[in-house]
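Sorry to interrupt, but I need a hand with the structure work. Go ahead and set the record down below:
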Amino acid sequence: MEKAIYSLVIPKGNYIQACVTTCHWYYRYCLFQGRYRGKEPMEYKLVIFGRLDGLNDYTAANRTNPHKGGKMKKDNEETVIWAIRQQLRRLHIEKPVFLKFSWYEPNKRRDHDNVSSFGRKVIQDALVKCGVLKDDGWDYVIGFTDQFFCDRNEPRIEVLIEERE
C-alpha cells in the first residue's frame, strides 16, 4: 500500500509526520486540543503536489484576455485550496507568520522568479481565503524565503508556516 505523508503540526525541532493510513487522527486531535501550543513557536507544513503556473504564463493569459488571466488564477487557487482543506483543516493562525517556500520543479526550464512570484501570490491568497491567515499584509506575513530544487519524479511545493511573536 502506498503511503502518503502529510505533516500536520510540527513543534520546532520535533518533526511529526503522520501517515494517512495509520495514526493520522491522533495528531489532528492533538493539534485541535492545543497540546503542542506552548513555549515553542509553532510550525505547520503544507505540501501542494504538482506545480502551479508561472508568472510568464499568467502575464500571457492577461494579455490575451483579462478573463482568461482571472480564470487561470482561480484555477491555481482552487488547487491550493484543495490541499489546504486536506492538510490544514480548521487551522486559524492569529500571530504573524514567516513563510518558507520549497519549490520542487521537474526540470530547470523555468527561472526562479517565474516559478515563485505568481505561486507565492496564489498560495497566500488561498491561505487567507481558507481562513488560515487573517490577511496577507505586512502585519500578518512578516517575510518569506524561497528554495529551489529539481525533482523529476514528484514536482511539488512545500510551504512551512512558522508562527512568530
